[in-house]
Design a protein that fits this description.
- This is histidine kinase.
- Pfam families: HisKA_3.
- It catalyses: ATP + protein L-histidine = ADP + protein N-phospho-L-histidine.
- The protein is an alpha+beta fold.
- The protein contains 10 helices and 6 strands, in the order ααααααααβαββαβββ.
- Strands 4-5-3-2-1-6 form a 6-stranded mixed β-sheet.
- Helix 2 packs antiparallel against helix 4 and helix 3 packs across helix 5.
- It starts with a helix and ends with a strand.
- The C terminus is likely disordered.
Length: 418
């Protein structure tokens, strides 16, 4: 016997055990009113009791809370696919009716199989032992005690056990096939489940973007600063050592800040932290520090235009910061030391971010570094209803992002260069 058949057999026996309260109630109360004193010894009364117990099962199974335990048993013992079964109580009339049908099927088949499981094995053992052990005069069974038929009883005993196993396997297979039909989610529940999965995937994607943008940018800056510091420390003493000290201080500050951002993102995974987006500052408040870190890593950045504090919606402000951060991280990674021109422009309806850098020997793209950063930028822009393009343009590598704002225009500030 396979483990799957054994689990389904156990599921049927549990159904028979669940049927017993209904069976005893009908036998002791209802049939007593009909004048049947002992329904256990009267086969017609026994069948009638069983038949009358099943409608009572159906009525009680109409309770919405009846579905979760049935689903839990079916998932664990029938082998039905977990996603094929519904979660939570039955909410609609159709769902409650399907649950009631499941209980009738489960407890009905379970009652038959459980009763046979209790009765057949002892009788089969008696048949197997009959050629050696004779039944006493008070035995309830009428069995041959002599002749050729006596030696055929072991075969009959084995046949009974095989028949019991076959009936249990067949009934278990019926329940396994019926479980997704009677306990499966309704169309509304399938839609809700799909929406929950989409929300979970959106959170995961956002977490991945936050980790990539924050940690990736920080590690790129740290690597360049550490390389520069090592080279200066290996050289002659003098002003180079002072610059190396500044680089090491920048590494310390970048690492400390990144640990805080990473902790906020991982807090979401632990379900104990804030929204991962809160780990990122806004463009107006975070841009000066971001520029300082980028310049400390050896990248010359020129900024034309800058957002004024408090004039952008918070989600847009935060995502725009991440976009600029990813663009500068790409510049550090693919062309360290090359000048970068960052242009920020705000109109009545949109915010434009443009980063341009002379083309390096190997321009950044999907074939260099996996392209996850640029894909994340495009995804952020798309979620905000904007657009993003990246590629060579007139001798430069250009990342251009346009985001809708829906707010009043902001005056452009002058040029800042360091």
């Amino acid at each position: 016997m396979t483990a799957k058949v054994a689990r389904r057999w156990l599921h049927l026996v549990v159904g028979g055990a669940l049927l017993m309260p209904y069976f005893l109630f009908v036998g002791t109360v209802v049939l007593a009113l009909l004048g049947v004193p002992d329904f256990f010894t009267d086969p017609p009364a026994l069948v009638l009791t069983f038949a009358l117990a099943l409608p009572l099962v159906a009525v009680t199974a109409l309770v919405p809370a009846a579905r979760p335990p049935a689903v839990a048993l079916a998932r664990g013992l029938t082998g039905a696919a977990p996603d094929a079964l519904a979660d939570g109580p039955a909410r609609g009339r159709v769902d409650r009716s399907r649950t009631a049908c499941w209980y009738v099927l489960h407890l009905g088949l379970g009652g038959v199989v459980a009763g046979a499981t209790l009765a057949v094995p002892p009788f089969a053992v008696l048949l197997l032992a009959l050629p050696v052990v004779r039944p006493g005069p008070r035995s309830p069974y009428t069995l041959p005690t002599a002749g050729p038929a006596l030696y055929l009883t072991p075969i009959a005993g084995l046949a009974l056990l095989a028949a019991l196993a076959g009936v249990a396997a067949g009934a278990g297979a019926v329940l396994a096939r019926a479980a997704p039909v009677l306990l499966g989610p309704s169309p509304r529940e399938r839609l809700e489940r799909a929406e929950r999965r989409a929300a979970e995937l959106a959170v995961r994607n956002r977490l991945a973007r936050e980790v990539h943008d924050s940690v990736g940018h920080a590690l790129s800056a740290i690597a360049l600063q550490a390389t520069a510091a090592r080279r200066l420390l290996d050289g002659p003493a003098g002003g180079g050592r002072a610059f190396a000290g500044e680089a090491l201080s920048a590494i310390e500050e970048t690492a400390r800040r990144t640990v805080g951002e990473l902790d906020a993102v991982l807090g979401v995974l632990r379900e104990s932290g804030p929204d991962p987006g809160t780990a990122a500052p806004g463009l107006a408040e975070g841009l000066p520090a971001l520029l300082d870190r980028t310049r400390a890593a050896g990248c010359r950045v020129t900024v034309r235009g800058a957002p004024l504090p408090g004039v952008l919606p918070r989600p847009l402000d935060r995502e725009a910061y991440r976009i600029v951060q990813e663009g500068l991280a790409n510049a550090l990674k693919h062309a360290p030391g090359a000048p970068v021109l960052l242009r920020l422009e705000r109109t009545a309806s949109r915010l434009s971010v443009r980063l341009a850098q002379p083309l390096p020997p190997a321009p950044p793209g999907p074939s260099d570094g996996g392209g996850r950063g640029l894909a994340g930028v495009a995804e952020r822009a798309r979620l905000l209803g904007g657009s993003a393009t990246a590629g060579p343009c007139e001798g430069d590598w250009v990342l251009e992002v346009t985001l809708p704002t829906g707010a009043a225009p902001v005056p452009r500030t002058g040029e800042e260069t360091r």
